[in-house]
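Database export, one record per block. Field names are fixed; values are copied verbatim from the stored entry.
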Amino acid sequence: MKNENLKKSFFATCFSIITIGALTLLTYKTSYGIFLIASFGSTMVLLFGYPESPFAQPKNIFFGHLLTASVGVIFVNFIPLPLYLAIPFAVGIAVGLMILLNVTHPPAGGNPVIVLMASASYNYLLNPIIFGSIILILFGVILNRFIAKKKYPLV
């Protein structure tokens, strides 16, 4: 095993614990609402394991999560399909829109599933999606740039 892989793995582990830990504390130890969703766990892989990836850049993280969750909310509120049809259509449309708009963030592809299964409201877009994504990005910049000394974001 290469020393570089050990270092990358160590930083990704520690930074993921710190970032998801902060979101978990905000979710369970404050009255500010939900800051944590399952797809944020997948975001950690890119944000701290592969921060040089275009999929890990702040624009893609923020708008990828927001766009796909919005598609899910639109389906919940305006497209009266059975869940077994709504989920695949919402995921497909969300993935297509991320690619079309150049904000692809693979973990966000799961957001329509989460939103539809939970019948989430418009409030879900603000918290956890917008506030949670901003926190992820802030931690990504601070931990990648100032602690790991990586060029992040790339722009």
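Remark 1: The chain has a mean pLDDT of 96.
Remark 2: The longest helix spans residues 3-29.
End of record.
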